[in-house]
Amino acid sequence: PTPATRERSQKMKVQSSEGKAQEGKDAHTKPTLLIPVEVPTWISFVIITMVLGTYWVSFKIAPLAFVDEADKSKMGGFEGAVDVARKGGFPLYITAAIPCFLLMILAEIILMLIYKLPSAGGKYVLADAWSSLTAGVVQQLVSTLVLKPALINTLPYELLHQAVSVKYGLALPIDNVSTWLAALVLCDVAYYWLHRFAHEINFLWAGHSVHHSSDHYNLSTALRQSWFQGVAAPLYYLPMALLFPTPVYMAMNQANIVSQFWIHTCLVRRLPAPVEWVLMTPSHHRVHHDRRVHKNFGGMFIIWDRMFGSFLDEEDAVSVIRGNLTKSGTQGEKVQEEVLLFGTRQNPTSWTEAVTQTMFWRPIVSALQKGASLRDIGKAALIGPGYSTAGSKRTLVVPSATSTRIRATSSLHWGGKIYVFAHFLIAVAIGFVVLIAKSGPWSLRSATALYLMYTLYCHGRLLDCNVSARVQELARCMVLVVFLLAVLYDPSKMFPLDIANVFDMPPIRFLCIFLSGVHVVSAGILCLSQGAFSETPAHKKSK
Prior knowledge:
Layout: H1 3-8, E1 32-34, H2 41-65, E2 67-68, H3 77-86, E3 90-91, H4 93-115, H5 126-147, H6 155-166, H7 177-200, H8 202-212, H9 229-232, H10 246-258, H11 273-278, H12 282-288, H13 303-308, H14 314-317, E4 319-321, H15 353-358, H16 362-369, H17 374-382, H18 414-436, H19 442-463, H20 469-489, H21 497-503, H22 506-528, H23 537-542
Parallel strand pairs: 1-4
Antiparallel strand pairs: 2-3
């Protein structure tokens, strides 16, 4: 193991004095917590305004520019969505919202710098945020280039819809607003049970736990998604096929997912009581991300948790005394997010996505490899961390004044982190082009996606401070430069005509020239600045 791996194996440790969740018999005895600083109301207002703006842009723009399996509409909003649905397609609300997501993350970082949030749990750490955003990029590429062509999301649903709904005249009218609103609500009901079972059943948790693996809680965490969860998720939405056409289901499912982005923040405290009672809010979802709790499973609405006994209010979990105190406070005081232990009990051992996405399958695989009994294998596969907690009454023990929380970070030199971040921005831009380039050859888009995944893997090893990572990254840069120069010289000698024609397009040729220059410079940096890709001096000294 690398030094970084050994360091990460010690991360996220919480002293026993922090305590575990108590069962219902102690639920009436609420621990008391004093919040040193209140987040100003104007910050919540800014966040919510940006959220509403994101929804409006996505709702208006998607039918005009981002659609699936149909021609783009000349109308935006609901009329455009209906127009696209009549052609057999659906608006891609998630794709349309991606630029807004990135802008909101930038805004949250700026607001945190202005406000100086006292909670370490909500702050941004480059390696952690990079890991979350990388997971989001790869998950979208896998969904678009693998799950979609395999018809995993649509084929079973469409077959059931045609066999029952169309045959017996049960399908609701596609041009009625109430049809779309009802589909949105029922999508959230289906998501509630998908989400709850993903915490209670271990082989489902193995996929979903990727989303919980960050020990920070901010908007980037919302994009930290599993590659595997999309395989099982469509099964939970099949009952909707009895009433709703496939385009309506697909569109409203995406709208439901978009609605969950904003709840991953520590900058919005409590909203007015009616909102907190009906909607899933940041307050409710912070409780959900506590690794000891496994409650509050709704996506857009919290009412399903209230109905099915899995609700826990943030102020019931930890009784809060609010006051205008100084940021330093007195010894022993803790901000609210430091009571909620974000993350998972199993510590990630690498920043590479390959490890993050697969590590939670290891207990199940290990049980199979050891030849365990059927009982042990069944327990490893079925008994998830939320199996005994989802429906129980719980409260949380406040961490003691002397307890500490060590959060994972990368010991890579700051120069190396800047290098990784700069290349990540390029990867995001190229990945977005792959997502929206529907007319491009699937083979070319898939090859580009695989290369992006390999690039992100190399950068994860850099963040791990792996001893061979710099050489591997240098080889990647040089191979790409040689490949791009060959493509620029004569693409027809390397590819079939349909792909060669893509590389003859002026924007693509400009992109190839730009990437060639960037990677030549990157190769020079890797050769001349070895110190930038090693551990920081402070970390070496501490060891």
